Amino acid sequence: VSRVLVTGASGFIGRHAVTALAERGFEVHVAGRGSVPGVPLAATHRVDLLAPDAADAVIRAVAPSHLVHLAWYDQPGAVWTSTENVRWVEASLALVRAFAAAGGRRLVMAGTCAEYDWAHGFCSEGVTPLAPATLYGRSKHALHTVVAGLADECGLSLAWARVFFVYGPHEHPSRLVAGLVRSLLGGEPARLSEGSQLRDFLHVEDVGEAFAALADCDVKGPVNVGSGAPTSVRAIAELAGELTARPELLHFGAIPMRPGDPPLVLADRRRLATEVGFTPRFTLRAGLEDTIAWWGEAT
Amino acid sequence: VSRVLVTGASGFIGRHAVTALAERGFEVHVAGRGSVPGVPLAATHRVDLLAPDAADAVIRAVAPSHLVHLAWYDQPGAVWTSTENVRWVEASLALVRAFAAAGGRRLVMAGTCAEYDWAHGFCSEGVTPLAPATLYGRSKHALHTVVAGLADECGLSLAWARVFFVYGPHEHPSRLVAGLVRSLLGGEPARLSEGSQLRDFLHVEDVGEAFAALADCDVKGPVNVGSGAPTSVRAIAELAGELTARPELLHFGAIPMRPGDPPLVLADRRRLATEVGFTPRFTLRAGLEDTIAWWGEAT
């Protein structure tokens, strides 16, 4: 049995990663400020990873062979520019140093599609230039730069998951899909942009499962975690309108397109599909149905 | 009077940066583990910047408007691969966060020519791709990535000095020029490679002065700190042989060229010369004479 430590386990993606890791036979330890209800865990370690020496202590206590590091500052909107990103770079480096020093073997970390230069649209690992435009993207990109070098020096096996657009239960209500579904279910008008921008959406349960699959293999380097399917904001909104039977609430063009918003952000999914061998379980329709059902019960 | 805090002030470059800053009228505070003899300082703050909260404390105590951050892990050879580089990324980020939070205005940090992809040889800021091949180069590059984003968000004025090949008094004896001069002065054979590789050498006093000039202006972004003059290892060795009158001690070809050692690493000096307005004081000959005189007294 391999022992994995998961950070950010109570978060949007983390709760699904934990479940998927347990299903794959990992002995799952979690570290963080929150708790994870309903998952068979070996142990929960209450710790603030931003506190000095917190990482050292939890790594010594658990002695994990695998580390899945998902914890990060997580305020939608603010995350793009907050200086909290810098604190999480520091805390993440301290965590990985402690893991390497304690003889850890396999490391999976959460990067972001915002590391890529979005002017290119199609994002392919090792091909598309990296030119993050935000402090969040810069911080993740810089973290990868250092950790990849550290992994080389220490003989750590590192996978760096570049996560694209995630939706599903427990999504923050200020984000696109959650906000849209809540409006439709509440019978309120959904004010949207023209909606032509193409994005790559993946259901959060599939994203969590992808992290477990990454922990459970030896594929190294950056790996996109996306569906590989381009979906316009208009298309996902129309599908939500259809599934809630409230298409008349959709108001396209009610807000302007964000200046500089790229026409396409799409994952090359070949590494995830072929090398990791991962296939998403949810179609966009099934994923939205699941999301709508969850919000229906939650509200 | 502007108040500058200098880290790494007792180091190879730092001692000259401190002198040059004082000459320009700065109120100079230094933070570090060592002391700086013979320089008129406002205050020395004894602090281990790797200790938690050390940065916060010293920034609060000094409240500097300017920060020149030179401190780093500094063991020649080991610096390329040591995990200490990662600790210095963490400590540097904590320092800059504290500086920004305390209302700091102008920040000058030490980067390295090892951030560039050396396959290109000629290193021009904003043109030559960055592809550091070592943990040291990755760490500096990543630090710049985050700090540049932080500076944008906080309205900090940031200059990132990419330092090329530095020589002069107090250089670590295991490094090229110091080792060469010591061999020649000691009457011992100097075992060298074939020596065709072209590098960009600048006397350490000029490097220190360049940091002071960067602190004393508002030029933003990466700025190469180099001479702009390509000098082969053979040429610098032959000049040292001539100046010590011991050319017969030079044994070119006694050791192999390092595999992958690039034929050229040269700074584009236009930003430093034109935008910062900096001109080196030492020619290579004068710089070597100064270095030989210093080692003659030191040994």
Q: Mind explaining what this structure looks like?
A:
- The structure is a homodimer of 299-residue chains.
- In chain A, helix 1 (14-23) crosses helix 6, helix 2 (54-62) runs parallel beside helix 3 (84-101) and helix 5 (176-185) packs across helix 9 (284-298).
- Helix content of chain A is 37%, strand content 19%.
- Chain A has helices spanning 14-23, 54-62, 84-101, 135-154, 176-185, 204-215, 233-243, 270-275, 284-298, and strands at residues 3-7, 27-32, 43-46, 66-69, 106-112, 122-123, 157-163, 165-167, 190-191, 198-203, 221-225, 230-232, 250-251, 266-267.
- The first copy, chain A, starts with a strand and ends with a helix.
- Chain A is of the alpha/beta class and 299 residues long.
- Chain A has a seven-stranded parallel sheet with strand order 3-2-1-4-5-7-11, with helices on both faces.
- The first copy, chain A, contains nine helices and 14 strands.
- The model of chain A has no long low-confidence stretch (mean pLDDT 95).
- In chain A, helix 3 (84-101) links the parallel strand 4 and strand 5.
- Chain A binds chain B through residues 52-53, 81, 83, 85-87, 89-90, 93-94, 96-97, 100-101, 132, 134-135, 138-139, 141-143, 145-146, 148-150, 152-154, and chain B through 52-53, 81, 83, 85-87, 89-90, 93-94, 96-97, 100-101, 132, 134-135, 138-139, 141-143, 145-146, 148-150, 152-154.
Shape type of chain A: globular
- SS element count, helices of chain A: 9
Largest sheet of chain A: 7 strands, parallel
Largest interface, per-chain counts? A-B, 31 and 31 residues
The poorly predicted ranges of chain A are none
**Global structural class of chain A:** alpha/beta
* Average pLDDT score of chain A: 95
β-strand number of chain A = 14
Radius of gyration of chain A: 19 Å
Strand content of chain A: 15-25%
The rounded distance between the terminal residues' Cα atoms of chain A is: 40 Å
Main sheet: strand order of chain A? 3-2-1-4-5-7-11
Multimeric status of the protein: homodimer
Helix content of chain A: 25-40%
Helix and strand sequence of chain A: EHEEHEHEEHEEHEEHEEHEEHH
